[in-house]
Design brief:
The structure is a homodimer of 187-residue chains. With 187 residues, the first copy, chain A, is mainly α. Chain A has one domain: Tetracycline Repressor, domain 2. Chain A is 73% helix and 2% strand. The first copy, chain A, contains 9 helices and 2 strands, in the order H-H-H-H-H-E-E-H-H-H-H. Chain A has helices at 9-23, 30-37, 41-48, 51-75, 79-93, 104-111, 118-140, 147-170, 173-183; strands spanning 95-96, 99-100. Chain A has a two-stranded antiparallel sheet with strand order 1-2. In chain A, a hairpin with a 2-residue loop joins strand 1 (95-96) and strand 2 (99-100). The first copy, chain A, is elongated and about 60 Å long. Chain A binds a DNA duplex (30 and 30 nucleotides) through residues 1-6, 29-31, 39-43, 45-46, 50-51.
Chain lengths: 187, 187
DNA sequence: TCAATAACTAAGCGTTTGCTTAGATTTAAC
DNA sequence: GTTAAATCTAAGCAAACGCTTAGTTATTGA
């Protein structure tokens, strides 16, 4: 047949993902991806169709990597306490040395315009909905809540998590810990 | 002397601000500003130096417009209840018809990279710090809190407000109302 | 009325964007 | 060893980016 690829697709996507994460979608150019991924533009387009394709694969990878955290949430029966753990684990996950990069998905939701990249937007919404469902599931483990209350609390927690994605870039770590603490005080 | 400007600077900045608000900083081009502001590129650069200058003026205007809300907060002695009012007023302020645009400042904080536009970043941080100080001031009106607790609560509220800027683009209005309600339950 | 001055329009500068093409190189089956 | 296919590199495309320049038009005070 023919030649083999000289790079591992998952490996180069991991590098692309981290670049998007640090840098945002729009302001990450294909030239930057080229350097970071260590492969030629042609190879990028051959493997992933276009820049959007690289990003969609990056989200997939991000999702599987964050699964390590959501899995412990999914399998735990710790209710609210489990969600709080998730918040703290997320902070750790989003850290690169001393700086926090926020959540890749949240960053992009805030950046992308619906009509400029509907495919990306759909992927982002799917991701967020999954997290919210996990929150609902865990909140249900406490029988004292009714369904309407649970839905509202899940929204509240999503709001706090989205906020944390931004706050983590601005506030000090101690402040972030304080925010999380207060967030769960009355749940 | 010479010719008069055929446009009012505040008026064209108002139009620019709304475009940045809807569209973000980076992805708003000078050509788009030209159309929206209704004046030629040359006039933009003559009046505001560069794109960054237009944006800085936009933030100033945004600040004076939001002052209408913060003033009632500043002058009120309603403590926590006053802050809650601010949250609701902010939602109204950020609405354009049926859609929510979030907070111009929050949107940009999330988009801009520190080293690409330090001037803008400084302006944004100043803005956020002001809001936080207002929260601190109002929380102090309730004597039952100590200083450390107040600082932490102000961070918590900032986190919720930042979250709301994103949530408002994704959630329905009823959900947003629910989020605000729960946010203030234990303060 | 007329020179001075500032605001206007429109064209275009160099650079960067996402993406493609052309051609050389490597691999694998026969 | 030859051929065919998929990979690679490198150059270059049109379009859009922020910004500038050249030249015209309008408004002012003397």
């Amino acid at each position: 047949m023919a030649r083999k690829k000289q790079y591992n697709e998952t490996e180069v996507i991991d590098k692309a993902m981290r670049l998007f994460w640090r840098n945002g979608y729009e302001s990450t150019s294909v030239r930057m991806l080229e350097k970071e991924m260590g492969i030629n533009q042609f190879s990028i387009y051959a493997s992933f169709k276009n820049k959007e394709g690289v990003f969609l694969e990056s989200i997939k990878l991000y999702n599987t990597q964050i699964k390590a955290i959501t899995n412990t949430l999914e399998k735990s029966n710790n209710g609210v306490e489990g969600i709080k753990e998730y918040f703290l684990d997320f902070l750790d996950f989003s850290r690169e040395g001393a700086i926090f990069k926020g959540c890749l998905v949240t960053n992009t939701v805030n950046e992308i315009k619906e009509d400029s990249s509907p495919v990306i937007m759909a992927a982002l919404k799917r991701f967020s909905a999954n997290i919210r469902e996990l929150f609902v599931r865990n909140l249900k483990q406490d029988d004292s809540r009714d369904v309407k209350e649970i839905e509202a609390q899940a929204d509240y927690l999503m709001n706090a998590l989205l906020g944390l994605s931004i706050s983590s870039k601005v506030f000090k770590e101690e402040q972030l810990k304080g925010i999380i603490k207060i967030t769960f005080l009355h749940l």
